[in-house]
């Protein structure tokens, strides 16, 4: 019996408290790692779903804008001016194409308010215009563009911002697009085809918030003419001609990723969606164009360049 007991004692494993504790700690670390990875995957999935939803809502905004542009053209026979100047004699000086679309996006009362304000004072940075200048318009703001979702306080007045700029074509000099200073382009004049020509695209307001005003604005001044460039309209190969932004390259700029903190990114189309941005074409269709399509944007931006494209995406 003694021999058997000794054998049992020798063959039986002995567990100390230290061994047991070490084994439990390893298990705990493994479980924590699995939970951490699972949470990361879930959060990433939620973030992707939210980003996709915001991109879809943004596209819906542009779809409504495209429809309003077509209704405007049907009413007047031409698309709205990108921005109004007319040698300083425009009845509503410096208003943008977005302001002219107000009656076509269920905002006729706001349009009438704007007309009344211009009757009181032709300069938009005056008290009669302040209520409209600060009026936030969700239709003109991308859901991903959080900084544009509330008015910017300039210290004197508040300014409502926009994430969408009209396509002036190549740049502020060429005026070969559909929305530029004093433009009055008819759809029939878009010989490249309305389904192949950009109307409006995404670009968040400039970092200093001086560019990206939906109601009215000067934009870049060329000679003595405010062009609205980079404020309410933009070219796909835009030039920088403003002393205020002398730290930025003169251009031309291309379609690429930008930053909310970089003023120089005001000179090109970009968005807060990963990989590209939404554009509405002159036929009202909306396309998400990736930054890889930059090479074909000059062809898409011109209304009568006679370029031949195999695909727009």
UniProtKB/TrEMBL annotation:
Keywords: Membrane, Transmembrane, Transmembrane helix. It comes from the Bacteria. Gene3D superfamilies: Glycoprotein, Type 4 Pilin. Residues 47-294 form the DUF1559 domain. The chain crosses the membrane at residues 21-46. This is DUF1559 domain-containing protein. It comes from Telmatocola sphagniphila.
